[in-house]
Design goal:
The protein is of the alpha/beta class. It is built from 18 helices and ten strands. The longest helix has 20 residues.
Length: 401
């Protein structure tokens, strides 16, 4: 044991250090159900979702400006900073924030040229042709943004400090409140790129999903042929983190396979990567983005618009209902919106505890610091370490236990 941060016990493991909140140790030892986030927890997404965010942003920016975007402009650190705010569980929203910021930060002359081209092409309903009209319009009068792009990386990280749990709405507020951009330009750009925020109606959402899924999975998921991207889907780069041995051992400790999933991602990509590992999870306790959107649609039919995506507790409470009866459930996530979701769920049902994993993040130290500052009940390297930590807790005597 090393000296621990205040309120935390540090438990050294082969894979790294686990941090156990001292006042929650007894409760952690009583956990009899575990619910997992999927992406970043059960699946390593560093070369799938994160790469798709960078590639989608680059694709749209280059078609809207005629300029090549530096590969390191959208860094792992920048993506982490977006997620840290708690409002960007949907990766489309990160692409939205990145693209809107970059295009709005361009010099005034460049924005004016882009505005003229957008006005000429925005009525084109075919998304590919709409973007192509801008690209072709720039071919004779390319924008020179080399100097701008060199100065943008630091500005982009500073911009993330203005974002919050409102996600895309906080992007709008942050950019418009600067007073640099006219509402007319911003509204035009938003309508041009994001439309109704649906695949097939939004350039940003469609480009991201095509790059992430690849042609086959995109057609299977959305029932349409891709129009922007025909290469290998980034989903193919995803790898399972969790393994059968870990789930088998954890099942033995808990007294049964009392596992659920509350994910902000879609089911089909998860199934493609996890395959038979999903058989460990209770089907009634597996909630994916597809289920969340279906519930939102049911509210919309009653003329009620709600956002049930993380950090809303909807998916966690829904997953937990499929594991009843249980005494205490541990939710394992890899981001701040996961921790916030547990906190929100605990307002309704105090039987939830939060765990944050960090080993498969590209910014491990930053993530651990955020989890500690937020006060997560348990912080550990990987989902595969849960068994060791629970056994350690059950074998130790803690104050108040």
């Amino acid at each position: 044991m090393n000296s621990a941060p205040k309120k935390y016990i540090m438990f050294d493991m082969e894979s790294g250090t686990a941090y156990i909140r001292e006042d929650k140790a007894r409760h952690l030892g009583m956990v009899d159900a575990v619910i997992f986030d999927c992406d970043g927890v059960l699946i390593d997404i560093r070369e799938s979702y994160d790469r798709a965010i960078a590639k989608a942003t680059s694709y749209v920016f280059e078609n809207m400006t005629g300029c090549i975007m530096p590969k390191n402009l959208v860094s792992d650190k920048t993506i982490f900073l977006f997620r840290r705010s708690g409002g960007f569980n949907n990766d489309w929203d990160i692409v939205y924030g990145l693209t809107m910021f970059l295009l709005c930060e361009m010099p005034k002359e460049a924005r004016e040229k882009l505005e003229k081209l957008m006005r000429l092409s925005i009525c084109e309903k075919n998304l590919f042709r709409r973007l192509l009209m801008v690209k072709e319009g720039l071919s004779a009068d390319r924008l020179d943004l080399r100097s701008f792009l060199k100065k943008t990386a630091v500005k982009l990280e500073d911009f993330t400090n203005l974002l919050d749990v409102n996600g895309a709405s906080s992007v709008d507020k942050a950019i418009l409140s600067s007073g640099k951009i006219s509402k007319e330009f911003y509204s035009l750009l938003k309508a041009f790129l994001h439309g109704y925020e649906k695949v097939g109606e939004s350039i940003l959402a469609t480009v991201f999903e095509e790059i992430f899924c690849g042609p086959t999975l995109f057609k299977e998921t959305y029932g349409a042929e891709p129009i922007f991207y025909s290469g290998r889907g980034m989903v193919e780069n995803g790898k399972p983190i969790v393994n059968h041995d870990s789930l088998r051992r954890l099942s033995s400790i808990l007294g049964g396979t009392r596992f659920g999933i509350a994910s902000g991602g879609r089911f089909k990509p998860a199934r493609r990567i996890l395959c038979d590992l999903l058989e460990w999870f209770n089907p009634k306790a597996m909630i994916f983005l597809d289920d969340v959107e279906k519930a939102e649609g049911e509210y919309l039919e009653r003329k009620i618009k709600v956002n049930l995506k993380k950090p809303s507790p909807f998916s966690l409470l829904k997953s937990a209902s499929g594991l009843e009866p249980f005494n205490l459930a541990l939710y394992v996530g890899d981001s701040m919106e996961d921790a916030m979701m547990v906190n929100e769920a605990a307002r309704t049902d105090p039987r939830f505890l939060s765990a944050g994993v960090y080993e498969y993040s590209s910014v491990k130290e930053d993530l651990v610091r955020e989890f500690i500052n937020y006060g997560c009940d348990l912080i550990l390297p990987s989902v595969n370490d849960i068994s060791d930590v629970i056994e350690f807790i059950r074998g130790e005597e803690f104050e108040g236990s």
